[in-house]
Write a structure and sequence with these properties.
3 strands, mainly alpha
């Protein structure tokens, strides 16, 4: 189980590293962290980021990103807890559905090609 967590950390870090700017990187880190932990108090976010990505973000920079994400309605803050907005929570599910649809179409095409050969 611990090995899987390490693989997820590595893949997440590589994905974050593909961001064009430091700001995009922090946005991605906050969203990925909240996606993983579901919700947390603002003051706890730094520790969760450290657990997942292995670094402690600079607090003023993190506060700026959290405020931006709240303004953009990508995250919510209710009862002192930060969490992904309903729209952000849908994104991984929509990706999974699209991936399944593409796989079905590919399978159909492959079966058609195989039928033509016989």
């Amino acid at each position: 189980m611990n090995d899987i967590k390490n693989h997820i950390k590595i893949l997440s870090a590589l994905s974050v590293a593909a961001s064009d700017t430091r700001r995009d990187t922090f946005i991605s880190v906050v969203i990925r962290t909240l996606n993983e932990i579901t919700s947390c108090e603002r003051k706890e976010l730094t520790e969760y980021i450290n657990e997942q990505f292995g670094f402690k973000p600079y607090e003023p920079e993190l506060d700026e990103i959290v405020n931006f994400l709240l303004k953009e309605r990508k995250i919510d803050e209710k009862h002192n807890l930060l969490s992904l907005s309903a729209e952000e929570k849908k994104k991984p599910l929509m990706f999974k559905i699209l991936k399944q649809e593409i796989k079905k179409k590919v399978d159909i095409r492959i079966s058609r090609i195989l039928l033509k050969k016989t």
